[in-house]
Structures are given as C-alpha cells and as structure tokens.
Amino acid sequence: MAVEPGPGGPMVGFGGKQAWLAVRDGEPEQVRAGLGLHDLGTVPWRTGIDVAYFTDDRVMLTPPLPGAADAVWVLVVGRWLARPGSGVDILGLSATLHTEVQYFATDRSTQRHRWRRVNDGMLLRSFDWLGRDGELLDWRGEPDDAERQAGLPAEVDDEAAVLVGEADVLRIAAAWSLDPTTLDGRTAPGPLLAAAPG
User: Domain segments of the chain: what residues?
Assistant: First the structure.
C-alpha cells in the first residue's frame, strides 16, 4: 500500500449520490460527540471517502475547512446520513453546539435532492424534491438568493415549476458553506475522523 503524502494525503472530493452535514466553526470531536457517534480513529482521505460511499453505517468527519461566510466548516459525510430512521437530529446538534448546521443529500437514481439549514436550533430553510415523481416533499422557509439563482421559485403553488438537479445541491452548498466536489486534490490539513452510529 502506497503511503499518501501529508498528514491525511490529498483531499478527496465527494458530493454525487451522497449526504453530508456542514457545521460552522466546529471541531470534529465536538461534532462527533454531538451526533452521538463512536470514534473509530483517523483514516487517510481516500480510504475514508471510499468507506463513506460503500457503507451505510460509517461517517467521516473532515478537519475544519475554510468556506463561505469567512467561516470554517467541518463536513460530515456518509450514506448513513440519508438513511430513513438514521436519527440524525440537526436541530439538536445545532442547539447543542450553538452554531449553524446544514444538511445536503443528492441521489441521481431517484432524482431526490435535499437541503436544510438550521442555526442555533432554529430551522431557517428546508427543501426536499423527489424529481422521479415530480413531488415536492418539503418546503419550509423562504428561498434565499442562492436558491433563486438555482432556479427555485420565490414560493410554491400549483403554477410554480420546480426542477432541481445534483448540480443545484452543490451550488447551494457552495453558497452556504462549501462545495465538497472542489476539495479533490487539494492539500489536506489533516486526516479524516471515522465514526459510527451507536
């Protein structure tokens, strides 16, 4: 097995067919504890992102990364976050850490695309679109400029057209915190922290 350069090797991007959280000004250990996850130690980026894609019972936490709003963001990635009944409580996490927490998920096969934004335990925005069935599953709060630029209407009614794709989820992530596809190949500030649900 080749040794990767740097403390965690080069960063590896993700985003397609995946779910992740962005936690503002967080520390990986704080975020892990706030989610009630067990610490599994650190892993190189390539290994960790592969595990996040190929299992549904592991998540990876990044070191703090610079992003939108002149803030640093800890990203938590793993298919477990998109599983029904996973018990991920971003309202509770946000209230516990007194910070902003965002949730993103995208799935090309069903065309289900979701995002949610919470600050200090208060829901600011929630959007959930199942494109395969043309069904809007959740719409709470008002879309901001980034969402409007992605093509969302100001409000939904019988006349409003909603058409959202994976690229739109990444566009919203970039505006709110960080587009994780842009991490690919950049120097890692450290390894990923692996964790598992109780």
Answer: 18-182+189-197
